[in-house]
Design a protein that fits this description.
Strand order of the largest sheet: 2-1-3-4
CATH architecture: 3-Layer(aba) Sandwich
Shape: globular
CATH superfamily: Response regulator
Radius of gyration: 14 Å
Largest sheet: 4 strands, parallel
Number of domains: 1
Bound molecules: 4-nitrophenyl phosphate
CATH class: Alpha Beta
Number of strands: 4
Order of helices and strands: EHEHHEHEH
Structural class: alpha/beta
């Protein structure tokens, strides 16, 4: 059965588009594309309609990952539409959980910090690279690369 995966950050122009791009590249490489639907969204609306930040796109491109998504804001329906929602930090976690209005249909269990799937890093959150330098964008890709391997392994078990 197809599993629907949603990555979430604040602006949906840096971390979550990178996670979406890495996930798509990995399932393509592993010939698993037919088993997944993948998307990303932001908790904020400032960048809706925009491509990912040029710095994030270029850093991913150098590693052979193309980021083509357009920013959109997460909505309550996404919590019921997607099977797994992976957030970048605890602020995102709180913001996503605060969208839950229908407490008759609990969805808490499928909302997780993406780095809970990381085997190499002790960090709990993917640091926001937006106001920093190039190192921050490389760090985002390093952290996500490792965590998404763990995520895919857990999903195909
Ligand atoms: P993201 O990064 O949440 O990884 O997409 C950010 C992008 C934009 C802003 C903050 C974080 N901003 O304040 O506009």
């Amino acid at each position: 059965m197809v599993k629907k995966i949603l990555f979430v950050c604040l602006g949906n122009i840096c971390r979550s588009p990178a996670a979406e791009g890495i996930f798509k590249q990995k399932i393509k490489d592993r010939d698993l594309e037919n088993f997944f639907v993948v998307d990303s969204a932001g908790t904020g609306s400032w960048h809706v309609g925009n491509l990912a930040d040029p710095r994030m796109r270029e850093t991913a491109h150098v590693r052979g990952i193309e980021l083509n998504s357009r920013s959109r804001q997460i909505e309550e329906n996404d919590l019921y539409e997607f099977d797994h929602i992976l957030v970048m930090d605890k602020d995102n976690l709180h913001a996503v959980k605060s969208l839950i209005k229908d407490h008759l249909h609990p969805v808490n269990s499928k909302i997780k910090l993406i780095l809970s799937y990381s085997e190499k890093s002790d960090l709990e959150e993917v640091p926001d690279p937006y106001y920093g330098g190039q190192n921050g964008f490389d760090k985002v890709l390093d952290l996500l690369n490792d965590a998404i391997d763990g995520l895919i392994d857990s999903l195909i078990d």
